[in-house]
Structure formats: structure tokens, C-alpha cells
Amino acid sequence: MEDKIISFHVHLPANIEKLGGYPVVIGDGSELGEWEYNTVCLYRPNPSINPTYWISKDIKLTRSENLKIQYNYAIYIPAAIFRRSKKIIHEGKNGSDESLPDSGKRLLNLGLKRQFDIWKNGNCSELEQYQINEDISDYAFVDYIYNNVSTQNLKESVLEYEALLTLHTELTIKGSNYDFIFKNVNESSRKEQKLFLCLLLGHHVSRQDSFILPEEFKSEILINVFKDFQKNILLSDQPSSDQSSSDQSDVIKIMFKAILCLIQHNSLQYKFEWLVIFKIAKEIDLTYSFLEILKDLNYSCSDFKKFSEEMKKMESCINDIGYENAIKIAKWLSKLCKDTESIIVAWNNPLILNKQLDNQILQCFTERTQKFISDDDVHILTNRSQELQEFRGSISAAVRNKALSLLEDPMRAWSYSNAHDIIKLFQDYRLNWSNDEIIISLELISKSQSSELLDIFPALLDCWFNQGFSDSKGKNIPNISKNWFAQLLNKLDSGILVIFLKLETIYPLLGCRKNIWNNFSTIVVDKMKTYSESQILNEIKFVFQIKIQEVIELYLNIIKRMLNKTIRQISDKLVDKILMICDCKSDSSLVIPNTMCEEIICYIITRLQDQSLLPNSERKCQTTLRKPIYSRSSYFCFEN
User: Is there a contact between 273 and 219 (Cβ–Cβ < 8 Å)?
Assistant: First the structure.
């Protein structure tokens, strides 16, 4: 024998109490009156709000294991009223039949503590004006379950609601719609009430083709009840005989739909209560399928930082997510990133496990970063290169490829700032530039039409030499350097001084590379052939200010070679040339202003002496050369 506590809940026709009796439950067994007595009476708990809703007090049933109990609702009219024997008007009564056929009797569901029923209309004269409509405006069963759910009866309340959906489908759906859920979401509600609302939400979502919670919905209130969620708190330990294991599984699926709806809403509101899903995934979603509904999050970098901070609080709960799920998370998280700064923050999120060991996880972030890099200009690329030090090795190829691609268009315009930004990339040893890439970069720079980009060539080449770069073939760099310098001269101002000033800046970087410097010297010598003698000599007063001796010597050698071809004898033309060299007027004494001029004058004199031309000079030349010649370094006078 086993005791069972039950109660009855029923919607009766309005005003049915006016029949002169009172509603009762009548049925098998002494507890239900043996179909004769008004043992179980009904009452209205809230007649002003729910006038058709009647309930009984709890009843203790003593039953055998397999005993079936039948019952019905009736109006019990005591004998005193009609001055005759008592009268029981059963629900569903037809005609004048006093007895109720077995087909009209209800079967007690012993798996549920509460029986939720709706009066069966009859067509007898007594009940003719007491009929209940299919649309019960004060339908109260869902409210009753919600208001009375507790830690002790949560599982049973879930079963009762599922039973309501079967017994009174349309009324239950209407009574537990979104409006019901929304009005009952309250921070002060019991945890079990919030879980019950989640169940209702799951059913509501299941009935929609698509459903997104309105912005004003407070999803965080319901999400917070899942912090320590375990699915067994919803599942009955001993399901009723008419509830299969698949039914219990369906409850979890329904709850999962509610959770998905809540976390989607919460995440789209830029809140972070939704992260609890990672804590309870092992209970409801072992494959992390929930990531699919979160794929469109539009998080900024600051949002990602908040995300990471919140995840750190749950770090102990996510260490056993499994390898496949770790890959899924990495792919999902990397795709959410909108820029490289977000990538860096996401990379450091506690969800990214074994990132230093697993190539698949690295690849997820590398591919995403490559996309950002491919859209970046050089300034952004340089800044991001600095930011990506956390996992530079995995994306260095992307940075290198992008840097090289920026150089591919020789007509690309380069500002001074951009040119110096890209040299920072090429000088960054952490990007692991290969010898071949170094040669390619130099070759591309050498072909550029931008003076700003051409200007970085010497510093870049010097940097790579200092980092141990080796030109394995031995000919690439000299040839590339030669082409670069020729291109640079083509882009420079046509002035002679500009060329030698450029050499002055190049020499400290590349002057020690003799083969390269010799190539530059050869190009300058050839370039000087395009200038007249007077143009070259007129620049002496400027070129002498150059501090690099090797550059001065190159210039002097060019002048000496040129003079070798023109000095034949002393003449007025030669005198004029000497005056030009010293920047003196023809009617003044010859003053040699600097050592460069002095060396050239000495060279001319030596050249004349070597050719034995001096004794045969003409009178004017002799007169001129007899004048004192003043030098800032010495004093001398020519005489015949």
C-alpha cells in the first residue's frame, strides 16, 4: 500500500453554484465518496479574479500499486433543498440519466499531485444554462503552477505544465505566452519561478518560426539562475507512467532553446551575463552548438576586453572543454574580431587554450589577421605589427607579404611618414625576413617612382647587413643598389650639389661596401658628363662644405679628369677658369677660398708644369700670375 497526496483543480461553468448545490469531486474509494458522498468539496481561491476556477484541499489516497481510480466533477445538491433525496448532477450528463457511464468517467493521473481539468458540458435540463466555453478568459492553471513552484516541487511543476500542454493545449499556450513571461520577470522572484519562466520561454520559442526577445526584456534576470544549473533539477526522479525518457529529454531541449534565446538577447545588448553558457555547456550543449547564434556579435575592442575580464572569473570551469570545442571556440572568437587590436585581446581570452601548442588554433587567428592586414595601409600595418608581438611568429608571414605587396606598384605615392613606417617593418627582425624577401624588397624599392621611398634604401640595406644578411649569389645587391641609385638620380633635382649631398648621406651607411660605393661613384661620374664644365666648377663653392672626405675626393677627381682634357696651355680662358674656380672677379687679386680650390689650382699648375707649358705663356697670363695669390692655407706667387 502507498499513500498519495493529490488535489483537484478545475474550471467550472460560471455561476454553476446557483444550481442550489456545490461543486464536488466524486469517484472511486472512500476518499472520493464512493460515487455517493460529497467527501471532496471544491472552493474558489480567488473568485473576483478567477470566478470559474475551483480547487480542492489536499487529499490523501491509499492505493495498491496497480489500482486505477476513476472520478468526476459534479454538483452535489443536498436532500433538504428539494425535500427529497440528495441529487448529484455529474458533468457531461445527458438527458435524464442519473447514472454516469464508465466512458464519461475520468482516470486519475497518479503520477501528478495536482489534477488540472475542465468541466465537461452536458445537455440535460439542469445544466442547459451552465455551459463552459472553449475560451476560458480566467484560465488559471499556469498561474497556479508558477505562483506555487518551489525548490521542493520544481520537477513536479515541470511535469504538470507539460501535462497541461497535452490536456488543454490552446488555453495553456495562450496562458503562458510572451506577455505572461514578460510581466513575471522580476529580480525578486524565486529561483524556481525564474527557471519555470525559462521553460515557458523555451516552449514559446519552439512555436515560432523565428523569435528574438524585444530590447526591453531583462534577459540577465533569467540568465543568472543558470550559474549553477544542472539538468537533473528539472527531470523527475520517478517519471509518471505516461512520461517516457524521450519526454524528459524534450524538456532539456526546450530549456536549451530558452537559454539560446536569452544569451542571444543578452549578448546583443552588450551585456555579459550570457557567458554563463560556457559554464553550463557540459550540461546542455556538449558540442557547443550555441556558438552559431553568437556569430554576428558586433563587439568593439573594449567589448572584447570586458569579455575577457568576465571569462577570467570562470576560468576554472572551462579547462575541460575538449579539443574539438577548443577549435570551434577559436574559430568563432577570431571571426568576431573586427580589427587586429580585437584579435590580440581575443587571443588572450581564457577561452583560447593551448594556443602556443596547437597549430589549428593558431591558424584560426592567423587567417583572420591576414584579412585585416590585407586591407591595411602601411601606417596601420606598422602599428599593428607592434601590437601583434603576442603571436608574431604565427602571422609574421602575413605582415611580410602585405609589406612586400605595398611595394609592388612602382607608381604608388609614398609620404615621408609612410616611407618611414614601412622601413620599421623591414627593420623588425622579429618578422623573420628571409634573404630572398630582403632582396625582393630592395629590388621593389629600387624601381619605385617615389623619392620618399627611394630615400629609405640605404638605411634599410645597412640595417639588414648589420643583422647578418648575406647575399648568397653575390651579385644581387650590387646590381640592385646600382639600379636604385640610378633611379634616385633620375628623381632628384638636376643640381650637381644635390647629387653630392645625397652621397654625403649615403656614405656613412654604405661607404664601407666597396663594390656598392664604387658603383655609385661610377654612376655619378657618368652623370657629371651630362653637365658642362662651367656648371661643375661653379658648384665648388658649395660642394666644399661637404664633410665626407670620400665624397670630396670623388668630386675633385671628376674635376681633375675634366681639366685634363682642357688644360693645354696658359691662356685667358684658363685664367678665367681659375677665377671661376676661386669665385673671384677678373679685376681683383686671386684669393683661394678653401682647400678644395687650392688643391684644384695646384693640380692645374702641376699639370701645366708637367706639360712644360708655363714658360711660353702669353703676357697677360704672365702679368696675372705675377700678382699675389692668397690662399687661406698658404701664400704663394707665380713668376716666370
Answer: yes
- b/e map 385-408, b = 16+ CB within 10 Å: beebeebbebbbebbbebbbebbe
Q: How far apart are the C-alpha atoms of 469 and 480, rounded to whole Å?
A: 15
> Residue 552 has what pLDDT?
92
**Per-residue cell: 23:** 461543486
Q: Can you tell me the distance from the alpha carbon of 117 to that of 28, in angstroms, rounded to the nearest whole number? A: 17
Where do we find the cell 625582393?
Answer: 440
Query: Tens of pLDDT along 389-420?
Result: 666 566 777 788 888 988 998 888 898 888 98
Let me know if domain 2-127 sits in CATH 2.60.40.10: yes
Alpha helices in 231-284 (DSSP H): 245-268, 276-284
Alpha-carbon distances of 593 from 314, 547, 589, rounded to whole Å: 81, 16, 12
3-state secondary structure of 411: coil
Give the three-state DSSP class for 544.
Answer: coil
Neighbours of 162 (CB within 10 A): 21
For residue 64, what pLDDT is reported?
60
Nearest residue to 349 (alpha-carbon basis) of 297, 285, 301:
301
pLDDT value at position 394? 62
Structural domain spans, the chain: 2-127, 139-297, 567-640
Stretches in the chain below the pLDDT threshold 50: 613-614, 616-628, 631-640
Spatial separation of the C-alpha atoms in residues 135 and 10, rounded to whole Å: 14
Helix (H, G, I), strand (E, B) or coil at 479: helix
Angle of helix 549-566 relative to helix 514-528, nearest 10 degrees, comes to 40
Contact (Cβ atoms closer than 8 angstroms) between residue 191 and residue 149:
no
Report the DSSP pairing between strands 114-118 and 2-11: parallel
Q: What is the pLDDT of residue 356?
A: 56
Supply the DSSP string of 113-132, one letter for each residue: SEEEEEPPP--SGGGTT---
Contacts of 504 (CB under 8 A, 6+ apart): 546, 547, 548, 551
Q: What is the 3-state secondary structure (H, E, C) of 496-536?
A: HHHHHHHHHHHHHHHCCCHHHHHHHHHHHHHHHCCCCHHHH
* Beta bridge partner(s), residue 5: 60
Tally Cβ neighbours within 10 Å of residue 277.
22
Q: Closest Cα to residue 626, out of 617, 593, 634, 597?
A: 617
Q: How far is CA 14 from the centre of its chain?
A: 60
Measured at the CA of 634, the angle between CA 632 and CA 639, to 5 degrees, comes to: 120
In order, the DSSP letters of 39-71 are -EE-B-S-TTT-TTEEE---EEEEE-TT---EE
* Exposure b/e, 188-221, CB count within 10 A at least 16 = b: ebebbbbbbbbbbbbbbbeeeeeeebeeebebbb
Residue 104's nearest CA partner among 122, 87, 80, 116 is 122
| Contact partners, residue 473, CB within 8 Å, separation at least 6 | none
Segment 393-399 long-range contacts (CB within 8 Å, at least 24 positions apart): 393/432, 394/362, 394/363, 394/365, 394/366, 395/365, 395/366, 395/369, 395/370, 396/430, 396/431, 396/432, 398/366, 398/369, 398/370, 398/373, 398/374, 399/373, 399/425, 399/431
For every residue of 449-463, DSSP letters joined together read S-HHHHTTHHHHHHH
